[in-house]
Write a structure and sequence with these properties.
homodimer, about 325 residues, alpha/beta, 7-stranded mixed β-sheet, 6-stranded mixed β-sheet
Chain lengths: ~325, ~325
């Protein structure tokens, strides 16, 4: 049994971590909640217990066994050393340590064994990476994926609770004929969409796209996979979608793909052509599984090595909070 | 000078046709408006003149030189013969005649010459096809495109004015905590997205995707282009976006692409990496040009033959009404 600290407890991911703890048989008997001074004094209910939110400091980690950080890269860099010093293992939701060669980057369905090889910090991948990789990995295992071309449809939740509020507020403003004033996002999000607003490298790829490329290669332990990504923010509250085009080493059929994904952990096939029912954000919201559908041969590859997929996964849940809790479960075993 | 009939005048595309007539130097001196009995008695202002909307019948086309049909495939099939019999040339916005080998399928920026070879009907391509092809054609001319992988972000307007109303109503209902009841679309559209709700063929591709594939090959006069498409409806009012991955015959650089597109008709480059400003639906709305940005090398192709683009075009304008008016202009010259 252990003591878990949730850092960034009042943020969108932190709240989700607390909710997920309710439903899981995790070897944790004590939970402490930390946030910035602004949230101090609030109380949150975790597993039926009302727990105070305390201000995060370097002294927060005494007696803590596991700390889930979801308070941004800057805070992770600042406070992870204190957690390590106190003997806690850090599961970090930020991008701070993901590409550090000494830090395992773990999706439990894919590379759980990497989690055992940590030096105090285990990184949680980017949400878009997790949602894609959970669907692609089971296929990669039976027929190596040589190339991935992905276009994302990312929800507001990826930018936090304030971004979800902005989508609601702007939508109401637009409907009422009021002027829209972007605050969280650089562009209007209501009834609009735009290229992911992360910095853009000289090669033209933004940071989100670069994460999908680099993290997937690290998690799959395969630097040779060719990947191109286009990341787009859409006016959806939570749950990301991704249109994924795959090229395999050998020919593969949609039926083979269905056969593999049917028993794949963390995957649910939603692929009802008759009823035109496929993965949608509102269906993925609150779900642990990544929904996979539109499974079909890529008509642009005549050699039968191409497959098209459309997936949806809850960005706050499997894309962040659930994956982190699963990593703690791996460690607490 | 000629007499133009607008069939389906009160629909989303018909209204747009009337607006576009205002601003263009088109050789038409008389405009007649037709719709279903429901709209009879309404009046619409075209070029400053109030014109009555009359009920469409087989006798509507006496003296008509050009008829733009935007009332759905069924009505086109039913009434185009009467228009032809009366001596009118039909520019048809529906899918009814697009793949008929005797009917030219025309985007004036690409294959204006095909319009001259008609037998009374000229088909206007699907909106998603037009928006993609206007951006891809100028590149195809200088370096043949061998493969296209496209994922769309399609607005509600593609399903007509009632679909736009549904997006507004559902958004208001969701914000007010009321239950959402889909009527036009089969799934909720507010704060959600879903696979394009057209029938799905045994190969798993829906009709919209099939249109993008077949129509592009017909317009480009190149049946060899390998194309795969994934068509998705998003909660945007009008203007479609498309994430386009291209493979060329020979290596090509983003700078070459920019050089070609800078002077391409119907194209505006919006590609400001510093300001993170790229094509967006709210920027494309009301514009004649297709906005093209996120121009970059496809990192998944090591031979330099791959380019990624993100484009946005007004679905009602260049995707439908404007293209049809441009075709009439070609004929009326």
């Amino acid at each position: 049994m252990g003591h878990l600290a949730v850092v960034g407890a009042t943020g969108a991911v932190g709240v989700e971590v607390c909710e997920i703890l309710d439903g899981r048989d995790i070897s944790v008997d004590r939970v402490s909640l930390f946030a910035s001074a602004r949230s101090t004094g609030k109380r949150m209910t975790v597993r039926g217990q009302s727990i105070p939110v305390r201000e995060l400091s370097e002294h927060s980690f005494e007696g803590v066994d596991f700390a889930i950080f979801s308070a941004g890269a800057e805070r992770s860099r600042q406070f992870a050393p204190a957690a390590l010093k106190a003997g806690a293992v850090v599961v970090d939701n930020s991008s701070a340590f993901r590409m550090d060669p000494n830090t395992p980057l773990v999706i439990p369905e894919i590379n759980a064994e990497d989690a055992q090889d940590h030096r105090g910090i285990i990184a949680n991948p980017n949400c878009s990476t997790i949602i894609m990789d959970v669907a692609v990995w089971p296929l990669h295992r039976v027929n190596p994926v040589r190339r991935i071309i992905v276009s994302t449809y990312q929800s507001a939740s990826g930018a936090g609770g304030s971004a979800m509020d902005e989508l609601r507020t702007q939508s109401a403003d637009h409907l009422a004929g009021r002027k829209i004033v972007p605050r969280v996002f650089p562009h209007p999000i209501a009834f609009n969409l735009f290229s992911h607003n992360t910095p853009i490298a000289p090669d033209g790829y933004n940071t989100e796209e670069r994460k999908m490329i680099d993290e997937t290669r690290k998690i799959f332990h395969d630097a040779s996979i060719a990947i191109s990504a286009t990341c787009i923010r859409v006016p959806v509250l939570r749950a990301h979608c991704e249109s994924i085009n795959l090229t395999f080493d050998r020919p593969i059929t949609p039926d083979e793909v269905r056969g593999v994904l049917k028993t794949a952990p963390g995957v649910e096939i939603v692929d009802d052509r008759e009823a035109n029912r496929f993965p949608m954000p509102i269906a993925a919201t609150g779900q642990d599984n990544v929904l996979v559908g539109r499974i079909r041969q890529d008509l642009s590859q005549s050699d039968g090595r191409g497959i098209e997929l459309f997936v949806s996964g809850d960005q706050l849940r499997k894309g962040a909070a659930l994956n982190a809790v699963q990593i703690v479960e791996l460690l607490a075993r």
